[in-house]
UniProtKB/TrEMBL annotation:
Source organism: Priestia iocasae
Cell membrane is among the record's keywords: yes
Cellular compartments annotated: Cell membrane
UniProt entry keywords in alphabetical sequence: Cell membrane, Membrane, Transmembrane, Transmembrane helix
Keyword Cell membrane belongs to the record: yes
Protein name from the UniProt record: Oxidoreductase
Pfam families in the record: DoxX
Domain of life where this protein originates: Bacteria
Sequence intervals crossing the membrane: 61-88, 108-127
Similarity-based family: Belongs to the DoxX family.
Membrane topology: Multi-pass membrane protein
Length: 133
């Protein structure tokens, strides 16, 4: 049952991060694509905006895909955690804790979930288990 729980966590977090990456890279799901994301990044001091938008989009998309697959799970978790730390530092941290005030509450939850999965392992239903055990 634990491995099924880990699979469900990996699927939801991974799909969400792939979606966020696709928003940045391709403008899908209501995203602003590289140009729009790059402009936003520039406005919050992340420069050069377009290049950082590509890096952020690829980090989210690839990190999410790896997390879903349970492949190189510690690396996937690090990609997710790094993205969330930057979001806290550059966007949400100054707003306090609560998400209702655009704070970092949700980002912190994602960090803890990704870290917990990395520490526990991806579970039986993962490529890590198939390849490395």
């Amino acid at each position: 049952m634990i491995s099924i729980g880990l699979l469900l966590i990996r699927l939801i977090i991974g799909i969400s991060f792939m979606g966020h990456g696709a928003q940045k890279l391709f403008g899908w799901f209501g995203g602003h694509g590289i140009e729009g994301t790059g402009g936003f990044f520039e406005s919050i001091g992340i420069k050069p905006g377009k290049q950082m938008a590509i890096i952020a989009g690829l980090t989210e998309f690839v990190g999410g895909a790896l997390f879903i697959l349970g492949l190189l799970t510690p690396l996937a978790a690090a990609m997710i955690i790094g993205t969330m730390i930057i979001a806290i530092v550059k966007v949400h941290g100054a707003n306090g804790y609560w998400v209702t005030q655009n704070g970092y509450e949700f980002n912190l939850f994602i960090i803890i979930v990704a870290l917990a999965v990395a520490l526990m392992g991806a579970g039986t239903y993962s490529l890590d288990m198939m390849i490395f055990n």
